[in-house]
Specification:
Strand content: 5-15%
Structural class: alpha+beta
Strand order of the largest sheet: 1-2
Radius of gyration: 23 Å
Largest sheet: 2 strands, antiparallel
Number of strands: 4
Distance between the termini: 65 Å
Number of helices: 1
Order of helices and strands: HEEEE
Helix content: 10-25%
Shape: elongated
Length: 61
Amino acid sequence: MGAICPKNKHSKARRDSRRANWKMSVPNLVKCSSCGALMIPHRVCKACGSYNKKKIITTAE
């Protein structure tokens, strides 16, 4: 057996409609439980350096 050889040509509309869902999504942001700044969920807050109401890293304030 050889490589994949399509029997019929797919139209440009079919090709482009398949690629129509390749778009960026807006990042989901939540409020930090310590300082109230917007942050990505399940990550250390960049503003205060806390995660799950515990201080994880020290930030220069």
